[in-house]
Each structure stands twice: as structure tokens, then as C-alpha cells.
Fold:
Amino acid sequence: MGKILSLLLLLLLAVNAARAVEVIYEQYPDKVDLWVVIPYNSLNFKKGTELSEYQLSLQISDSRKKQVAAFSKSFQVPSRNWLSETGLPVRFSTQLKSGAYDVQIQLRNRALGEKRDFKRHFSITDNSTEIGMGWVVAFREGLQYIPNKLEKAGLDSLKLQQSFSLKLDSLMVRYASATATVNNPQSPLEIDLLPLLEDGRTASLSMTFYEQNIHYRMEPFLFTPWYAYSLRYSLPDQMQQLRYIATQNEWQVLRILPKSKYAEAIEGFWKANDPSPGTVRNETRERFYQRVLKADEMFTIHKKLKGWSSDRGRIYIKFGEPDEITTETYPLDMYPHIIWTYYKQNLQFVFADTKGYGQYTLRNKDEEY
Structure:
């Protein structure tokens, strides 16, 4: 498209996936927006209480260790089943010059005295984010949160909050057959989504941005667990996982890099394989992360035999969910076996448990390549 790629620094700050805090930076000509998303399931409640109070503190320092920005916010969260698998957003805005920065975050439970500290390094460039993340923010019982799915029941309101630096002709939001169009939109923009939703209907929400003869399409941000990927896997593991989907030429470059270059190379790989440049979302990357996490969940049989590195895990990551799975209790070459069939790709993979402890290996590797 000949457009400058949007700046999105997705920083995953935590000691483990359950305590993950996601930080997303969007840079605009007059400010930098920082969204901190806290998983509701990571919060703790004092025994016998249904209300927890937290304080979030954030400090940003430049490359000379000088503090350039600081924020603090207190918030109360009720114990509610409908908040499970959602995220609580906290938004800050500041002005930052181009350069390298360290961000320090502390999340403190005031009742329990529990503190969690996170730190990460990031950089700001001269380029503005063209189209920022489409934030779906729900409001219920006075609390705002990012839902994991779209549903109307029980909500006081449901807003789409969108920022951008492009001069757009129009923006269209579509849910099933319902649409809402804004002509000559001005950033930041807020759209009421409740009129588009129908009780009981399940559909995806999409946004289309029109700029003269160019249009961008993306999906808004709903809370999903895929971001835990970078917390769970080391950079060497991430490089080995990329081997599954990288072209031969891409892998020849990646495989000889020193470990000090892994983080930069991984970001470069996903930038080059972004199906929607000009937007902050990379759907291919998200789908890959989800497959790796699911493969680990389904196929890990021992801490030293990770599901993602197994034969079934590799095929799942490369090709996704099979269209049909056939399990044979009768032996194939004296071993139990499983057959995965992918009809669209005209592929069939045969896995056999040759050692008798559930570690199925691929028998027809030629089919994979």
C-alpha cells in the first residue's frame, strides 16, 4: 500500500501467563496513548469479600534513566462471574520524543498488600500510528472492561473507541447485516455498538477504513489469551516455532542469527508477514500464537516433551484443526495410530505411538513437505 506501517509496541510484562499485563502503545502527532490491560482472572480477593481495590502505578524513564512521565490510578473491582476471561483497561496519554524508554509498572492490591512489578524496554520512532487498535469497551455496574465476546445482555453500554492519524473519508462498522457508517471521522472516535447487536446472534465485528482509493479492514480488540505466548516461550523457542511456517529463504536467514538478534528478527518476520499492513493488527501472528498455545495444551505429555515440539503439535501449528480425526485401536505396523485428514489441502497424516506412552510420531513425513 505504500503506507508507513502503524506503530504498535505490544509489551507483555509479567512473571507468568496468569499474571500477565498487556501494554499497548499507539503514537500520534500530539501524544502517545498507553493502554494497560489487566486480566480480571489475575486479580485476588480477600476471603469473605466481594470487592477488591487495586492501585496501578506507571513510570517511564528515558535512556539516561531520567523519569519523563508518571501515572497512578486506583480502581475497585467486584467479584463477578461475568467478568471471567475479560480484561480491565487503564488508559494514559503523554508526550514522548523519539528514543528508547523503560517502563516500570506496579500493580498493588491494597487489601492484601500484594505487589507485582513489571519492567520492559521499548522505543518510540518518528512515525505515527496510522490506524490504532479498535477498542471494544463494555460498561456494566459502573465498571468498564474489555469483553471476550460480543453480547448485549446485561450491558449498560458498549463502545468502540478508535484513534487514527490518517485523514479518512469514512469508517464503516459491520456486525452481521447491521452497519454503522461515519463520514469524515475525526480522531479519537467513539461509536455506540449496542444498536448493532441482537440478542442471541453470534457474528464477528469488523471495521473498514476508507482513505480515497485505499481501504483498510480490521477486527476490533476483544480480550483473548493469545498474548500469553511471549510470556510462556523463550526467544529460542519462538525461533524454533517460526521454523514451522517460515519459507526456506526466511529460515536460512533466521537460523544463523545470534541470540542477541532474536527479538528484532522475530518482529521483522511478523512485519514481513502481516496480511493487513497499515493497521495495528496482525491476524496471521495472532492465529499462530493461538495454535502454539493450543498445541501445547493438547499434546504435552511431560514437562520435557512439550506439545508444540511434538509431531502432532507441529502439524497442528502449520495446518490448524484437522477436518477429521480417525483413531484406530487396532495396530498399524504393530502400533496404535491416529489419522488426521485435511480435505481442502488434500492431506492426510498418520501418527503412531511407537513407544507406548502417548507420544505419537508422524509416519508419513513426506506428506508434510
About this structure: Residues 169 and 213 are 10 Å apart (CA to CA). Residues 1-19 have pLDDT under 50 and may be disordered. The chain has two domains: 9-218, 226-368.
